[in-house]
Design goal:
single chain, 242 residues, alpha/beta, Undecaprenyl pyrophosphate synthetase, six-stranded parallel β-sheet, binds 3-methylbut-3-enyl trihydrogen diphosphate, binds magnesium ion
Length: 242
């Protein structure tokens, strides 16, 4: 029997999927484990999901790993998350590169430690020629912050006469967003049963299909992504038309 490509034959496969990976803490709590144990298992779910996205033929996968509001967590948890990020890049880069994954970072990482910024920049440069799947990791990302940075850039351009303020349209704004090189967002998934965007991809979500699942992020896997893609394939997108 030929290998089944879940999602195919059941409507279109989304070009760009974004995931709010939520529920690591609750996953750990249910098992009387420290929150870091949930984050560690969350990294395993990332590995599985990235592989599955490539197999499903998704072009771009954007993962919300650290929000601009997550600095409000205890310093020890923030440090744990940064440590896991370092380890993920260190352990996974060769496999990602070998699998044709192009790594991108969205968000403002200027606040991160210099060596981590260098590591992330080198990882992106190392994989920049890859074409199979773009993996965008959202780090110190907030949709409002992204729009503020875009507005500031446009204002600076207008001040020096590079653009006419009257010429600013949706296209010019989009060209300033961190996601400018990614395809339009098709499907936005949030795990753990919460039904909010928590400042993720506010502009890009304008016509994305939203899917909220109760699965806690550490339990998310290839089958869960395939089910989400199948659900997307049954949606009727109208964009305001008929
Ligand atoms: C998501 O899991 C991971 C990050 C936000 C970094 P949480 O840590 O938010 O898990 P819950 O929501 O407390 O269960
Ligand atoms: C959103 O999850 C951020 C990430 C998944 C990185 P949070 O757990 O931080 O969101 P809230 O605080 O419940 O809205
Ligand atoms: Mg949470």
């Amino acid at each position: 029997m030929p290998a089944e490509r879940p999602g195919s034959g059941a409507g279109p496969v989304p070009r760009h999927v974004a995931i709010i990976m939520d529920g690591n803490g609750r996953w750990a709590k249910k098992r009387h484990l420290p929150r870091i144990a949930g984050h560690r298992r969350g990294v395993e779910a990332v590995r599985a999901t990235v592989r599955a996205a490539g197999d499903l033929g998704i072009e771009a996968l954007t993962l919300y790993a650290f929000s601009s509001e997550n600095w409000r967590r205890p310093a020890a948890e923030v440090a744990d998350l940064m440590g896991l990020l370092r380890r993920y890049i260190r352990d996974e880069l060769e496999e990602l590169a070998g699998n044709g994954v192009k790594l991108k970072i969205i968000g403002d990482i200027s606040r991160f430690d210099d060596d981590l910024v260098t590591m992330l920049e080198q990882a992106c440069a190392r994989t920049s020629g890859n074409r199979q799947l773009t993996l965008a990791i959202a780090l110190n990302y907030g949709g409002q912050d992204e729009l503020v940075r875009a507005a500031r850039g446009l204002a600076l351009d207008a001040r020096v006469g590079r653009i006419d303020p009257a010429a600013i349209d949706a296209e010019l704004v989009e060209a300033r967003l961190d996601t400018r090189e990614l395809p339009p967002l098709d499907l936005l998934i949030r795990t753990s049963g919460e039904r909010r965007l928590s400042n993720f991809l506010l502009w890009q979500a304008a016509y994305a299909e939203l899917l909220f699942v109760d699965t806690l992020w550490p339990d998310f896997d290839q089958a869960a992504l395939a089910a989400a893609v199948a659900d997307f394939g049954r949606r009727d997108r109208r964009y305001g038309g008929l």
